[in-house]
Design goal:
This protein is of the alpha+beta class and 351 residues long. The protein has eleven helices and 16 strands. The N terminus is likely disordered.
Length: 351
């Protein structure tokens, strides 16, 4: 059942939103009102929206949640008045991947706004999202919390003039300070000499308009750890997965932009109990240090000694069939619908 099929039979709140009672799947539905908040789609299909952290298939989420909850609503927010009307309806939960709204240069962060008016939501607040979105800030917080992460520094074109001025030893791994989805990471991200270092730093500035984060290269396996906050006792459940990538022409295993775009990596369960526990401990500690709530994902890489190191965090992970969903499926034998229910349950009880 999708929205267009039922508009003529159900109560319409406005032209962009709709409460509904769905077909009875659960014997007793939970008497809660949930709003799925979205913003207008970009003109170009693959255009990046900086204010959206989680791209939702809102019609699918509507269909899933309507099986369990009495009232479910999709609302597209176009104006500040739309946001105000949502607050007056006082839903029991806002389910959204929107970070903020830009109303004629007036920025309103959704989750901070919801905190002010006492409406629960999924994922973390603005402070935590700021912590994780700036990779330098995130790594400094992690270091202060005594969690292992690769040595690093920030580079701009022309800042370092020769090999001797670079503060850590080659080989180095270079990526943009901001951004996700491995944008800016490619076969030239691993550098062994000053000339390659200089070229990659310049490439990031020209193509991503970003400073470069330069780290000690970690040569071990790569992992991602999904985090769920328990809706009853608020303890954290860690769900590690291994991400295996074929070697490139230089013999390196790099989870770069093309690998993610083409979905050529292999995701595996972590069967070694020692590694599983080490990954889980680091991920939980990192999640707490960054101020995460409800759910998230922590990326980890081993060094040459097999010691796990924090790479980066995503406190509003994608909810399609990416790493977070696969961590749920491989660790908890959870299907997609149950993942959405778990996120909703945690959101209802965790704020």
């Amino acid at each position: 059942m999708i929205i267009e099929d039922i508009k003529k039979d159900k109560k319409t709140i406005n032209s962009k939103s709709l409460y509904l009672k769905s077909d009875n799947v659960f014997t007793v539905k939970i008497n809660k009102k949930i709003e799925i908040i979205i913003v207008p789609k970009p003109n170009e299909l693959n255009e990046h929206q900086k204010n959206v952290a989680i791209k939702l298939d809102e019609k699918l989420i509507l269909k899933i949640l309507s099986r369990r909850y009495m009232y479910v609503l999709i609302t597209e927010i176009n104006t500040e008045k739309d946001l105000k009307n949502m607050s007056l309806r006082k839903p029991d939960l806002v389910f959204s991947g929107v970070k903020y709204f830009d109303f004629n240069s007036k920025i309103i962060w959704l989750n901070d706004y919801l905190d002010l008016i006492g409406i629960p939501y999924i994922a973390s607040n603005r402070a935590a999202l700021d912590n994780e979105s700036n990779k330098i800030l995130a790594k400094n917080i992690i270091k202060k919390s005594h969690i292992k992460t690769a040595d690093f520094f920030i580079a701009e074109p022309g800042k370092y003039l020769d090999n001797h001025s670079i503060p850590i030893c080659f080989p180095l791994f270079i990526k943009p300070v901001t951004g996700g989805d491995s944008i800016g990471i490619d076969s030239k991200s691993i550098v062994h000499d000053f000339e390659a270092f200089k070229q990659k730093v310049l490439d990031i500035k020209l193509n991503q308009n970003s400073s470069a984060l330069v780290e000690t290269y970690l040569s071990g396996k790569e992992y991602s750890v999904g985090i769920f906050e328990d809706s009853n006792n608020h303890t954290l459940k860690a769900m590690p997965i291994e991400i295996s990538v074929k070697a490139n022409n230089d013999g390196y295993h790099i989870l770069d932009f093309d690998v993610k775009k083409n979905d050529t990596e292999i995701v595996l369960p972590v069967k070694d109990s020692k590694i599983f526990n080490e990954l889980s401990k680091l991920a939980k500690n990192a999640f707490k240090a960054l101020g995460g709530k409800s759910l998230g994902r922590i990326d980890i890489k081993m060094n040459h000694l097999g010691e796990p190191h924090f790479i980066e965090a995503n406190l509003m992970p994608g909810l399609q069939k990416g790493y977070f969903y696969r961590s749920c499926a491989l660790n908890l034998d959870m299907n997609y619908d149950d993942m959405i229910y778990s996120i909703t349950n945690t959101g209802l009880s965790s704020h």
